[in-house]
Each structure stands twice: as C-alpha cells, then as structure tokens.
C-alpha cells in the first residue's frame, strides 16, 4: 500500500524552492519518506516535516548537479580539503589498530630524524653564542710534520706584532687552583688569559671590569674574574662581590669582575672555566720559542677572509724562520675558524648519523606505503563505486593522499615529542660525547624540519597507493563482490618489501663495519695494560710547596703511602696520561748535528713505578730508579727517529725547557698510543728529574677492583696535607673509553637504527596480511 507524503509540506516546498531545485529536492524527500514509512509511518512523517522546515529556513541557492556530481559553485579547494580531512578522521576512528600501527612507525622514524637533526642543528648549523662568531679563529703552530700544535710565547708575540689581518690576538692557557676559605678545599679550573682576551671574545662583565694591561705581569697578577656559575654557587651571587678577595693556592686574589652566564660556552674550554686570572708571563717565559704549551685566539678584521689571514701568517712564519733558524725553521702557523675547531671530527660522525636515520625514514615510508597499499586494495569496490558515480582519479587520489598526510602529521607530532623526550633524558650522555651539547634544543628550525619530514613521509608513503588505487579497473572491482584481493597488487607489494630489505641491509652493513672498527680500536694494542688501574690527579699549591725539593718530598711520601695500601701492586706518577695528548718537544742530541726538519716527540715526566703500573715493557737497558737524576727513557720509535741505527743507551740529549741540562738515556721502552686510539703509536720520551712539577697524575695498579681503592688512595694523600685537592679520579679503562666516545656514539645510533628498521620490516608483513580495515564512504 502506497503511503502519500504530507501534501501541505510539499506545497510549502513548492512555494519556497526555486524551479531548478524543486523536483530534485521533493523527489529525494518522497523516496526517503517511502523507505522510512516501512518501519514507522509516524517517524517517517516527523522526519519529512523536519527536512521541510530545514529547507524553508535555508533553501539551496544554487543549481543542483546531475549524476555527474560536478563541484558546486563556491565549493572551494579549502572546503574540499576540510571534507577530506573529516572523512579521513572518520576512517581512522573506524580502524584504530591500523592508525596506531602506522602512526607508531612514522613517529619512530620522524622522531629519530628530528632528534639527530636537533644535534646537527646545534653543533653544525647554529652559530656560536658569541658576538660575530664567524670572525673568531684559533691560532696554532704548524709542526715540521704538518700537524697543528700549541703555541710558543716567542712566536706568538712576533705574530701579534707583525700581523695586520686581525683586530687582536690573545694567548691563554689552563691552570688549576686550590680554592680554600669557602669550605672544603677543592681544585677549580682557571683560565690564565693574556691582554685583550675578553675584548677579542667580546665578553663583557655584568659586574666590574676586565683585566688592565699592567695586571698581566708577575707582580700584578693577583686579580680574578669569576664566572656566573662560580659567583652564584660559591659566593651566593652577592652583588657587592667586587673588591672582595678569594684565596687561591693560599694567595689572596682580588675579585675585579663577574662574567654573565651567556659567555660560559661549555664547548670551548677557555670560556668554561670557573675563574680567569692574568697569564702574567715573566720576560724569560715570553721569549721562549721552543716550549709549545700555550693556546691562541684571534678576531679577524671585518672583510678579511680566512685565506688572506693564512697567507699573511705564512709569510710571517717564513720571515721568522730566517731570523730564528734553530727554533722556527720548518714551523708555520695554522688558523682555524673557532666553530670548526670546536666541532672537529664530529661533523663527519653527525652527517653519517643523519644519513643513517634518513635511510630509516625511507624504510618507514616503504613500510607505511605497503600498509596503505594493502588497505587501498581492500577498498577497491567502494573506490570503484565513487568513480562510477562521477569521482575522477584526481579526486580519489586527493582523498587517499590526504589520509596519508594526516597519518604522517599525527606521526610527526608524536615523533617531535619522542625527540624532545629522548634529548632531555640523554642530555648527560650527550654532554660527554657531542660538542655544544648544552645548546641542543627544539627551535624553529627543528620544528620546520619536523614539519617538512612529516609532509615528505606522507607524500612518499601515500603517493604509490593512491596512484595504484586510482588505476583499478571499475568493472573488475564491481564484479569481485566480496571475494578476497590477496592476489591483487602482489608485484607492487613485493617491490616495496624488497626496497625495505635492501635499505635495511645497507644499514646493517654500515653498522657492522662500525662495530668491527670499534671492537678493533677497543682491543688494539695501546702499548699499555689499562685493566685494574686507578688514576687520580693532584696539583700542589705553589705557595705551600714552592721548591722542587718540597714537591719531590710530597710525591715521594704520597707514593710510599699508596704502595703500602692492601692490593696495590705498583704505583707511579706521570704529568699527562696516555690519550690525553700532552707536551710535544724536540730533542737536542749531544754529538749529533742539528737536523733541518726535526720532528717533535711526546715528552712525559714520570717517576719510578710508572712503567710497572702501566705494564709498559722495557725492551733494552733498564727502568728508572729513585737514585737516578736527569735520565731519559725513549720509546722504540723515538730511538729510531733521532738516533737511527745507533744505540741511544748511554747517549745524552737536552729538552727545550732546560737546554743546559744533559740527560742520559738509560733504556728503550715499548711504544704507546699517546694521542688517540686511531693513530699509530707515538714516539715518546720519558724523563725523570728531581726538579718536580707541581702537578702529577698518580697511576696505581691493583689486584682489587680499582674503584675500591679510590677512597684509601685519597686518604693517603690527605694524610700528608689535609687541604690538598684531589681530582679527576677514574680508572684507566674509563680514560680508554673516553677516547672511543665519538665512535661509540655513532655505532650505538647505527645499531639502534638497524634494530628499528628490522622491527618494522618484521611487523609490516603481519599487519599487511591481517588487513584490519573496513571502510565506509
């Protein structure tokens, strides 16, 4: 029985609607009314009147479209995009498991790329937090072998006098002071800086002033500038601190300035000190040309290129070589941009890591593309129906690509949070492995990178499924009905999986090479045995131990007490541990003509017991003993370098810092890697003298766990002098591992990337086979 629609409602519609809309709207309403009347006539009439009221209040103002479903006039691209986004959200809400899987894969890959880019941005792209950092350079001498090395004061002051490419040059070095009077005595790190240092760096104090030229003398050196951190932690940030005195090495230093926190650049040791004092060299020290133990910094004049300054310094070095052939011949000057010096070898490592996570991103794109392609196949029939109703390929492509981009946007947002959390939790680890780690943050450049990577991921992952779905045959799709589509698109899916596996293999091969290299370095022959060795550094207070005899007496007494501790097998001291890259000097051989291009060797001051503690073998001759005075031990490479085929034992040589003292060679020892684990062993000369330095590192071999000996060893030293600071307590294995930091970091990141890629490659086929999607348009 046919049920008639409400006539009065139809009459009202015919009055309100335009001619081009009347038949279209009334016909649709009557068809839907007839369908709803089968369930409930009352509900159908109520529905008809509700739709009538809606049309009376807001009638359609434009002409309806026919079955071709052309876009309505005024239906902008933005409205179409909003509709696509709303529909994509409905699709995601109907298949949450699929959405979570895709967003999770994208979040991991985008998060990894964002985290690594944040490090790259802070280390390589962002300028140093100093004024005009692009004009700030480091100065080095170039050894006859071509290596950049520390400065000698004599050469530096000649450069400072003759160079015209710089606004200024300054020399600096590092010192350690014993701080007392503020609680427990402890060692603090100080920068001893020359005239103009802070003006070159453009560091202006928040309180007080910088050093005056007359204070850069031995008699006027008792002034100090505090870092912001030291000022707040040690003196409570007192505003009246200027003019107070600070007790350093038992001497009173007047506080003349406080530097702001912005000038504390942790990646540059010269601006990461606790305090700064004048370098205050004596006339004899200023004239020294053979003792290279100073650092140099300079600022280029505006408009001067680095190459111009380098050419000028080369010309000056050539002239100095003619004036001072004994000390300067074969030596030159090296200028390096400050940022390049700070970054060092980290640039290559970071670029490699960025490339590795870039491969992970490509794997994720292939992974997600496979999932989206599988889902698109399960929707072939509904896509075919839309196409049959008039939707063009472009419209279908837009809808599917919008879904992919929406998933990528969600993955990018989650990946950004993961990157921030990872960088925050790993800040302590990064501080010891990456320069400028304290500057790593999520800034505008990183946000733009994350946005760009998210869009790129969505485009790469969504384009192939969208194009492939739009090319489906409508007749075949409609005829298939409810049949499975497991055999459809097999070639495309296999191609994507092959791409994933290929990229994963590239990552695995790269990580394998890194692991092999790391293991080779870790177990390479360093020339010493780092196992069960404890090290600790002691710097004596000069006013308390002003004479060499007093310093020798202190170290001898300390070694005697340490050797008496249970479990100690051997103990000795050295000024700079292996892998620390200490002093490098040339030798003057008695009875041999001076060579034109002498090569510098590593020079270390040691005491009896050091070789036994490090298990460095004595190849010929003997070890040093307490009764010796002014003797040398030379490594095998150093013996060949200086004496050639001659036997060096019994011969004598001088060192640049004491050219009047002839030291006899008593033994040839094994070669040791002094600079780093990558380079070959370094020619080394060990000297023993009663004229002891005020700083030494104790090296203690024990049969126990080294960490258990730390407290007793410190107590043995404090038993001699209760106010003596002891610092840098660590095992030799920790020293060794510190030398492997860059390689360890890159290897760890590569392994993480491989694990991530492997997990995705494993999980993707199972998700694809599950086809966990049902879609409604």
Explain what you see.
- Helices cover 48% and strands 17% of the residues.
- With 777 residues, it is of the alpha+beta class.
- The protein has four domains: 7-57; 95-130 and 339-346 and 364-485, no CATH class; 144-330, no CATH class; 533-739, no CATH class.
- The strands form three sheets. Strands 14, 15, 16, 17, 18, 19, 20 and 21 form an eight-stranded mixed sheet that branches.
- β1 (136-142) and β2 form a beta hairpin.
- α4 (77-94) packs across α15 (393-425).
- It is elongated, with a radius of gyration of 38 Å.
- Mean pLDDT is 83; it is low at 64-75 and 761-777.
Key structural traits:
alpha+beta; elongated; 48% helix; 4 domains; disordered C terminus
Question: Care to give the gist of this entry?
Answer:
With 777 residues, the protein is an alpha+beta fold. The chain has four domains: 7-57; 95-130 and 339-346 and 364-485, no CATH class; 144-330, no CATH class; 533-739, no CATH class.
Element layout with pairings:
Elements: H1 7-16, H2 19-37, H3 41-57, H4 77-94, H5 96-125, E1 136-142, E2 148-149, H6 153-162, E3 166-180, E4 186-193, H7 197-201, E5 207-208, E6 223-226, H8 228-235, E7 245-248, E8 251-258, E9 275-278, H9 283-287, E10 295-300, H10 306-323, H11 325-328, E11 332-337, H12 338-343, H13 346-378, H14 380-388, H15 393-425, H16 427-431, H17 444-470, H18 474-480, H19 490-522, E12 533-539, H20 548-563, E13 568-574, E14 584-585, E15 588-589, E16 601-605, H21 610-614, E17 618-621, E18 631-635, H22 636-643, E19 652-655, E20 658-669, E21 684-688, E22 695-702, H23 710-718, E23 726-731, H24 732-739, H25 741-770
Parallel strand pairs: 4-9, 6-8, 16-21, 18-20
Antiparallel strand pairs: 1-2, 1-10, 1-11, 3-4, 3-7, 3-10, 5-8, 6-9, 7-8, 12-22, 12-23, 13-22, 14-16, 15-19, 17-20, 18-21, 19-20
Helix pairs in contact: 1-3, 2-3, 4-15, 5-13, 5-15, 5-17, 5-25, 6-10, 13-17, 13-19, 13-25, 14-18, 15-17, 19-25
